[in-house]
TrEMBL record:
Protein's organism: Nocardioides panacisoli
Superkingdom field: Bacteria
UniProt xrefs under InterPro entries: HIT-like_sf
This protein's name: HIT domain-containing protein
Length: 214
């Protein structure tokens, strides 16, 4: 069987849309969950846009244009909770959940092109970062995200779901996060420092000497 083309996939979506080009709200899926943050009756999906001619370039698509090729990229930067010779764990500029950290390799690569030696280490780091975040008193779960549509350099995002805030469970946490109040900087720093210190103890590297966000 031939692999499906973008046009064939898109045609199936268009066929499911109404005359106004809008898909119906899938009330039996995420919008119907009790943890979904919006009321179903007031939801309306935007009209479908046509397929683009091609995927737009991302920041750092060419390695020489990426931040990691700057001579200073290998040096500690403000907002680093942990780092070693190959990776850095940076603090998001602001967060509305107890912890929001981003793991990046210092070598230019994307998820599909991580060298095998880094891939092995990445697996260990993912486990240790999640364990450290879930040891925070205010965090129940560490949620791991990767999109990569804006930047071509791999960045794994770890969000700490607030403990006992059951309405914020699951993938709707992203929608909630945009609407919650900002966590005070000193709280954000303290939580990031805890994760960085524990990571340094478990896997080596340098802890949060520069934990304040840039």
């Amino acid at each position: 069987m031939a692999l499906e083309t973008p046009e064939e996939y898109y045609a199936r979506i268009v066929a499911a849309a109404g005359e106004d080009g809008r898909l119906p709200v899938a009330v039996e899926e995420m919008p119907g969950w009790d943890i979904y943050p919006y009321e179903i009756d007031s939801l309306r999906i935007k009209p479908l846009q046509p397929l683009a001619d091609e995927e737009p370039p991302r920041r750092g698509e060419a390695a020489e244009d990426c931040w990691c090729t700057d001579p200073g990229a290998q040096q500690p930067v403000a907002g680093t909770a942990w780092r070693n010779e190959r990776w850095r764990l940076i603090v998001a500029r602001e967060t509305r959940v107890p912890a929001y950290l981003i793991l990046e390799p210092l070598t230019h690569c994307d998820l599909a092109s991580v060298p095998s030696d880094l891939a092995t280490e990445m697996g260990r780091l993912v486990v240790e970062i999640a364990a450290a975040m879930e040891a925070l008193p205010s965090v129940a779960r560490a949620q791991l995200l990767r999109f990569g549509d804006g930047g071509a350099h791999l960045h794994l995002m770890f969000l700490g779901r607030p403990r006992r805030a059951l309405q914020l469970r699951g993938s709707p946490l992203l929608d909630w996060e945009e609407n919650l109040p900002v966590v005070p900087l000193e709280v954000h720093q303290a939580n990031a420092a805890y994760v960085g210190e524990r990571l340094a103890e478990r896997v080596g590297g340098t802890g949060p000497s520069w934990v304040q966000p840039a």
